[in-house]
Design brief:
Elements lengths: L1 H19 L4 E2 L6 E2 L15 H9 L11 H10 L1 H7 L4 E5 L2 E5 L15 E6 L15 E8 L4 E10 L2 E11 L6 H12 L1 H6 L1 E11 L2 E10 L4 H4 L8 E6 L9 E8 L5 E9 L2 E8 L1
Length: about 290
């Protein structure tokens, strides 16, 4: 049932993309969260076989407008096996360290990336970089699967060629070689160690949360480390994360904005970390 539920999310997301080009957003303090409150024919995941549903998706062409924004393309790409075969540039270079092999179409396995997880993350240096996900001129995007436990990064490199998004390369590397290495090392411990979480909070942490008396309003406040249990995010991914880089160039910044963004479930958490006295501290959180 868990697998079926995950697949139903993919179906709902794809339906949204086909009907609206993924342009309808849910405003929950951030306009980028996908909203799947659209009219479509319900799919009974208890009676329809998985392979049948996959066949239905595979037979549905992606609208041309989906190539305008990378997000629109990506949600179609992850749900459509046939589209993947069309949008992977074979033979595909796969690099591990200094060794590169060429992956043939016959060797390709359908890649759902973060769809099974139900959310993805963004790592930014500043708020201005948020606008890149809506920039139709972006032509180079990297989706990273960061293995926090074994400290490796798998990069899926997409480029827009002749107006079409294509997966052109996959790279494997160590976190130590990543532009966000310092923050990723910190976050790996932060996500898995509750005591370290409390130790890594500013005093106080600024926060913005939904108004319990008004669903359309947000209220500002603050909390202290001893209140962390009451304010901590509903999801704090550990083990591995998927993050999308829309061409932003990272610097040796003393600030990182870490965003956890759900797929069709309204989840949105934005955490701002800053280096204080040589240590990363959570200074602000928006939920």
């Amino acid at each position: 049932m868990k697998h079926l539920a995950s697949f139903f999310v993919v179906m709902a997301t794809l339906t949204l993309c086909l009907s609206y080009g993924c342009s309808e957003k849910k405003n929950n303090g951030n306009d980028d969260t996908l909203d799947v409150h659209v009219d479509f024919v319900p799919v009974d995941t208890d009676t329809v076989p998985i392979d049948t549903m996959e066949s239905i998706i595979a037979e549905t062409p992606m609208p041309k407008a989906a190539d305008e924004l990378f997000d629109d393309f990506l949600f179609n790409f992850t749900a459509n096996r046939k589209l993947q075969l069309e949008r992977v540039k074979f033979p595909l270079p796969v690099t591990k360290g200094k060794q590169t092999t060429m992956l043939s179409q016959k060797e390709w396995k359908t890649e759902q990336l973060f769809m099974k997880q139900g959310f993805y993350t963004l790592i930014l240096d500043n708020e201005k970089q948020l606008a890149l996900s809506k920039d139709t001129t972006v032509s180079h995007v990297v989706v990273e699967k960061v293995q926090l436990d074994n400290k490796t990064v798998e990069q899926y490199i997409f480029n827009r060629e002749n107006g079409l998004w294509m997966l052109t390369e996959i790279n494997h590397d160590a976190i130590a070689q990543n532009n966000n290495a310092s923050f990723l090392d910190f976050y790996a411990r932060f996500a898995s160690d509750s005591l370290f979480q409390v130790q890594s909070l500013s005093e106080p942490v600024k926060t913005t949360v939904p108004d319990p008396d008004d669903d359309f309003n947000m209220i500002d406040g603050e909390f202290y480390p001893e209140q962390w249990q009451d304010f901590q995010p509903p999801v704090l991914p550990k083990g591995y994360i998927y993050t999308i880089i829309y061409g932003q160039e990272y610097k040796q910044s003393k600030q990182k904005i870490f965003i956890i963004r759900g797929i069709s479930n309204g989840l949105e958490t934005e955490m701002t970390f800053q280096i204080k006295d040589g240590k990363w501290k959570l200074v602000k959180m928006i939920q």
